[in-house]
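A favour, since you know our structure tokens better than I do. What I am after is a single protein written out in full by you. Could you add the entry underneath, on a fresh line?


***
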Amino acid sequence: MNSQKSIVKLLCTLLIILTVFCNQSLKAQSNRFSFNFYSNNKGDSLPYRLLSPDYDTSHRFPLIVFLHGSGERGKDNEAQLKWGVMNFASDQMMIAHPAYVLAPQCPEKQSWSNFEEHKNNINCVLKKSPSIPMDLLIHLIHQLCKTERIDTNRIYITGVSMGGFGTFDAITRHPYLFAAAVPVCGAGDTTKAPLIAHIPMWIYHGAEDPAVSPAYSYNMNAALVKVGAHPGLTIYPSIGHFSWLGAYIDPLMIEWLFQQHK
């Protein structure tokens, strides 16, 4: 009995050490992102974090735009790093695929996308005007392309949940800005598929997602294939809303993403 207690105590101690180590590692990675704010002449502002590659001035690097989900909205300029984006800031990733990584934070009660949702037929209708955060984001991307050494032929966009909706919104409104898109548990306007059929895309969803129906991804994939596109589609069986946990550690997707050029 004492031996079993000793083993349990040892395992608990190791678990605590591992947790502390992981937290310190994540904190160190988050510190690689600079703190910034973008504002327009209307008084609207967008907090954002930016990861820059270790580079010399003779090279240009891809830009990854990461859109967080609804739970990370706010103004602390920190919560948007909670899910997914930190995978691009690991030692291994920064060595294998140096890139700028832009992680903006959507204000509370606002959204990246501006859709009318029709839940009966599992479709979204894109409204004419973008949301304020999306409008700010697009202007921010153009500004960064002027001030940083970004390869404008390699701008990628990805997002989770609300950010997945935002990914479809962004590429539909600006179909020639992005070189590739990875929407995760999101949704878009299937009637706009012809506008985005030329964009390399890899769609992810959980088969048992209770928050965003996987039918959105099935329908968008079918609409894209119908107009001649060849999107990737990964549906994780027995997975609910957290499909991004698998998406951003998928080595095939990562390698595919960094191969895309306009």
The two ends are 65 Å apart (CA to CA). The beta strands are 33-39, 45-51, 61-67, 100-104, 115-118, 123-126, 150-160, 180-184, 202-206, 232-236.
